[in-house]
Every structure is written in C-alpha cells, then in structure tokens.
Fold:
Amino acid sequence: MHRPQFLLLLCGGPATGKTSAASALLGALPPGYRVVHIQTDAIRMMVYNRRHSRRESRMVYEMLRICSQVALTNGYSVIADATFTKRRDRQVFAKLAHKAGSNFLSAKLHCSLRLAMLRNSQRSGSKFVPKEKLISMHNSYEDDAFSLVLDTGSLKPEAIAHLLLQRLGFESPESSLGSVSG
Ligand SMILES: Nc1ncnc2c1ncn2[C@@H]1O[C@H](COP(=O)(O)OP(=O)(O)OP(=O)(O)O)[C@@H](O)[C@H]1O
Ligand SMILES: [Mg+2]
Structure:
C-alpha cells in the first residue's frame, strides 16, 4: 500500500488534547512508518527551560518550522503539535508542505473552556498552564480554515487517530466515529 508523506498540524488551546491525539496516532500508524512528532512545548523546554514564554513564541514557531522542514526533506512525515493560535503560522506550514510535495492537514482539536480548565487543573508542575493564560489563549484563537475540527469532549484519542488516518489516506472511510467538519 502507498503510504503518503504528510505534514499534520495538531492545533488547539492548552489541554484540548493535542499531545494525546498525537500519541494515539503514532501508535496507530503502520509499524516502521517514518514519522516524527514535534511539540513546541518540548522546544521551549529544550531552549528556554520553561514551558511558557510568550516573548519567544515567534522563535519557537520558527524552530518548529525548521525541524519540520528537515524531517520532510529526509523523507519523514511530521506531526506538528502546537497551539497554532495564529492563522499566519498555519499558513506558513501549509506552504512548507506544498513545497515538499507532502499532504497537508490542519486539525483543530477543541473542547469547552470549562473542560480544558478541568483537565488543566489535574496537571502539575510545568504541565500546568496558568488559568488566566489558558482563558486568554482560548479567547484570542484565530479560528478558521482548518481541514477538520474534532471535539475532544466526545471523541477519545483513539477515535481521533482513526479519523486522522482516514483523512491522511491510510484507511478507507468506514464507520462514523463522531462529527467532523471542514
Ligand atoms: N480526547 C480526549 N478524551 C478525553 N480526555 C482527553 C482527550 N484528550 C486529552 N485528554 C486529557 O486531557 C488532558 C490534556 O491532554 P493533552 O496533554 O493531550 O493536551 P494538549 O492539548 O497537548 O495540552 P498542552 O497544549 O498544554 O500541551 C490529559 O490529561 C488527557 O488525558
Ligand atoms: Mg501537549
């Protein structure tokens, strides 16, 4: 079976379920499939040794773009796991995929602010996002032009992985596991 190369953006505010979806997708891809999962959180921790740094956000997205470009050039697919609050950041990655001749998919993961806050309250250490920051990111999200929008309040990470595999051309559509738009 032909296994297309892809650049997948997993977008959404804090605690909406991006990393959980990425893990489920990694587990569902065919064994040996060449893919990397790159998170802005990990880049921030590596470079700045802290998870939240609004001032350096531009540089973190630039690093994510460069890492993604290197991976695509070397024949790897990319799961880019970041808030992607700004439309222009998503557009930069769409162009990158186009240049590399890779499939591009931007998936917005969302849940209610209430549920995101509940999930966030159950986290500790550097994983916890200050409440005001979570609310402000939720409210300032530039919310349009996604390939698909997935509700993590009703879809489990495994169901999301299944839907993503279909859209990426790894599985043919079959049973409906939840609502998809876009
Ligand atoms: N689809 C889901 N269904 C139920 N619970 C979920 C789902 N996705 C994530 N969760 C739970 O929500 C919490 C936050 O998930 P996760 O860390 O994946 O979010 P995130 O979007 O990567 O957050 P951040 O932006 O802070 O990195 C976790 O405790 C996880 O178990
Ligand atoms: Mg995460």
Observations:
- Residues 31 and 116 are 32 Å apart (CA to CA).
- The helical segments are 18-28, 40-48, 57-73, 87-100, 113-121, 131-139, 157-167.
